[in-house]
Amino acid sequence: MTALVMVLGALSESPVWLLGLLVFLPGAVSALGTVRQTKFVFAWTTLVVIVTMLVRHGDGRPWLDRILMVLLTLALGAASVYTCHRRISREHEMLRLRSTATAMQRQILRPLPMLTDDVLVDGVYEPVQEDRLVGGDIYDVVVSPWGTRVLIGDVQGKGLPAVGAAFAVIGTFRATAHREPTLTALVDALDASVVRHNSYAAQTGDDERFVTALIVNVDGHEEVQVINCGHILPQLVHDATVTMPALAAGVPLGLAELAAEPATVDWFAFPPGATLLLTTDGLTETRAADGTFYPLTERLTQRATLSPTDLPRALYDDSRVFAGEGGQHDDVAVLSVRRSPTR
Questions:
Q1: pLDDT digits (tens, 9 = 90+) for 187-213
Q2: pLDDT tens-digit profile of 60-86?
């Protein structure tokens, strides 16, 4: 390369335009390479510039110009090494932060699938922001003395305040689901957790939140218990047919004091081998380019024969195709709850 620069410099009126490009080479390497590679290119570039200046000592160029060219090479090279070091340090820091966030997500939103004596729970969880592992949609599964309790919920709004409310609900669910014998008592505890979170949020100037939720209790009986707190209704898949159980609407968590009546438990049949689909509005409110909402019941019926493991991902992928270039505008959680064939 040194010989090439010298040859090209000899053919040109001045090597300055060649060296002017060469001195930026360490900067280009610093953007992609390691510190060692950047230092090597820096040293090589400096050597080429110095040798070229000495070889062409008879071209009449003032020594001041030569010295300035060498100083410029040294300055840019040193800056490149420093920049590369800072870049790699930031990359390592981001990797550590992402590893920490991943560990936190595994504690907050447990990895799917989850298997209990009563059900197999599988699904898809996709935050709207790709760099955020946890969003406003929540889910959890707890084994209690009264059966397996499944939670799916959706916190009002987006951003870190919504994540804070999500943490409050999940933490309370895990602490009380195996302690409270009735779903109504469990829902009362969840509602109180959102109220407490909102009181703290008001003190710091953040917005208050409410949380829509669906709590399902599956035990050895063929019927399941469900309390709907303003959430999207579940859909039952059995023998390749899809039905939507009729449930009381209820009010979201955090707004119980505004309700005319307390939360009530609904019952419906959940036969062995059936699958219960739970989702958030990130799926049902997906829109096509013409504003049409994603037809969940229709698409679910078309995929009713899929396994409970494949069903959530198939629906999610189909909704992305349905939305087209508009993409995802909200967090999405889709759970399949498969009743064990035998207890």
A1: 999 999 999 988 887 787 777 788 999
A2: 556 676 777 778 778 888 888 888 888
Q: Is the peptide bond before 234 cis (omega within 30 degrees of 0)?
A: no
Per-chain mean pLDDT for the chain: 82
**Residues comprising the chain, all counted:** 343
Give me the amino acid identity at 22. L
Q: What is the mean pLDDT of residues 3-23?
A: 52
Give me the mean pLDDT over the 334-342 stretch. Answer: 85
pLDDT at 14 over 60: no
Question: In the β-sheet with 137-144, what is the strand arrangement from edge to edge?
Answer: 137-144, 147-155, 211-218, 223-229, 266-269
Q: What is the DSSP string of 296-311?
A: HHHHHHHTTTS-TTTH
- 């009002």: which residue's tokens? 156
Whole-angstrom CA distances from 221 to 64, 180, 196 are: 93, 19, 35
Angle between the N-to-C axes of helices 2-11 and 35-55, in degrees from 0 to 180, rounded to the nearest 10: 40
In angstroms, rounded to a whole number, what is the distance separating the alpha carbons of residues 28 and 266?
A: 65
Residue 331's φ and ψ, nearest 5 degrees, are: -60, 150
DSSP state of 57: T
Instruction: Give the three-state DSSP class for 88.
Output: helix
Beta-carbon contacts of residue 125 (< 8 Å; ≥ 6 apart): 109, 112, 137, 139, 331, 332, 333
